[in-house]
Amino acid sequence: MAAVTDHDLAVALLNKRHEDNPEDNFVNSVLTGLAKYGHLTEKQVKAVLAPREDRKPSEWVGEEGDEVGPLEVTLLYVGGYSNDKPFRFVIMVDEWGNVYKTSSRGKFSYEAAQRGKGGKITMKGVVGTGNPEKYPAHVEYNGTKQTVLSDVYLGDDEIGQ
Asked: Is the pTM of this model over 0.70?
């Protein structure tokens, strides 16, 4: 499964901060540079990800088998492959900075692919994979806690549908 880069997380957090406060000069300045050059500098990424009083780092959510959502999330990564059915890896962040990842096919993965990186989607899912010995419900990548979800659906669908 693809990892969330610091750059991806910084862009998602910038977009969320802009939604929360469109008058934030720092956010507007960095987003202007992103639009112009297509990427953030290493210094900008560090500044965005620096600890802030109003933002906590990603935390693990729930325990194996718990349902989460519906949550509005920002898509950080949507990728995958197709044999006979589309199968996609999706990494997303909620409004509190918690990072989730899933392997999915079906309606959710189709909608995620249509919206792409930076898109918003309302989802719900089940924490873990049903096989915690082999695939844990909570992982950490480069110091970022990530919650692994299975059975991920659009926010208006029933889990297990």
From this structure: no
